[in-house]
Amino acid sequence: MIYDIEYETMPREAMESIQLRRLQVTVERAWATVPFYRKKFGEAGVRPSDIKTLDDLKRLPFTTKQDLRDNYPFGMFAVPMDNVVRIHASSGTTGQPTVVGYTARDVQTWATLMARALVAGGASQGDIIHNAYGYGLFTGGLGAHYGAEKLGASVIPVSGGNTKRQIIIMRDFRPTIITATPSYTLHLAEVAEEMGVSFKDLSFRFGIFGAEPWSEKMREEIQKKLGLKAVDIYGLSEIIGPGVAIECHEAQKGLHIAEDHFIPEIINPQTGENLPCGDTGEIVFTSVTKEAFPIIRYRTRDITSINPEPCICGRTLARMSKVSGRTDDMLIIRGVNVFPSQIESVLMEMEEVEPHYQLVVERQGNLDTLTVMVEVGDLVFSDTVRPLQEMEQKISKNIKEYIGVSAKVKLVEPKTIARSEGKAVRVVDKRKL
Amino acid sequence: MRAEQISIFLENKSGRLAEVTKTLSEAEVNIRALSLADTSDFGVLRLIVDNNEAANQALKEKGFTVGKTNVVAVEVPDEPGGLHKILGVLDAGGINVEYMYAFVQQSGSNAVMIFRFDNTDDALKLLGENGVTVIEGSRLYTL
Question: What range(s) does the AMP-dependent synthetase/ligase domain occupy (chain A) (predicted)?
Fold first, then answer.
């Protein structure tokens, strides 16, 4: 099934002509209404009238996460607040969060894209969707919710947490589709098992999983363990939220990008140069239909490649491969974005802590665990155990409070954290993704 | 009247304790008494040695975190109720014992216990007033 036959199966030529027209309008609007873009375009020596072909996109400057932080909170909005009906934000704990806004039409666009995504993932109107993405400032929950309603499916807005209750709901309401992070889904399956409920006896046919990197191996495990088909969904709040790209359940091979709304490019993350189709690099998006928050050449830092070949499902939308990594050191732990620099800020706020630390990420069973190794220097050392344990707890509590992830703190002997000659190795990721 | 104790931070992994004893052995430092407090992740090793300076230096060179603490070595009559009598005095005087451990050697007919108090000055005063013998550090190291 295809939700939006016209756009999802559009011949490339027609798609490109729509993209160009929408791009020109967006660039013009961004230039006219967002001082940041006017300044940036000026510095790059480009004016909206210079955008004559899609190739001219390359002449426009990139937008980075830092740019969004610098314009916190509403500096990147292209419409008056009267026209903004929704605000979402990244966690941005210790650094500046990034804030995005939506007009009523943007929310509709997003809902349509999510409806498309749900259908591509295998959903139809008769489905009951168990939506276990978090609701709130995070775009996952509400994004999937509006899409499900747009499609006309029944949605259970269960959000994250309350795991045992979720199992009872699954058993009693018989949802047919689950939307969640893959790791939380596996956790749900474990808890279900403890409660004597087998996922295979539930009514799920499909799962639409995203918001964290997950491998083909994990897909196999989920499909086998849970007895459902698992598809990958991609999105980020800066572009619109979930629904930027979706894997079709027919092929399960690459995520179809909603190219009529977002123009993708792949660049070399070091040089910023564009790479040809098929090459792996950083994916950059330009939104061409967003009203409240247009974004030009946004550097996602996600590493992937683009395949323009039409798919067996009938869609002509280009596909991006599963995101294989990030250009920066951001960790995604149980769906929460964590930068080592954030942990560092928490540690460094405590004067008794030494500057040497390391983050160890592991996957125990199906849940990510974060261990923060902190060296014990003369300042913190005590001849009794209690103050040391209290310090571990204090660090752990601060990390939970500021960043929102539970971390185990482990005190280690001085000089035991490997020193590197250049950039410190702050992260040891032992997850086999 | 105080004795100096050194304490060492140890990660709970095999061979770390042996690394300490090896280091002290090579520095020709004699261990007089020791106690180990541990959790699942780390331990704190407390030592009374015959040469604090040499021990401290050798351990620091090997990268250990070493701390110094004042403790009190108390002679405890080696008889039933001997330790209880002393603890009773401390309790009555409102002194809290942070931790204690036994010295390996006897002093005459008495045992020796190492105490860490929350208030060392008050504890020493109280012990003196009650006729409890406290062993000077310099004597302790060479008992």
Answer: 78-286
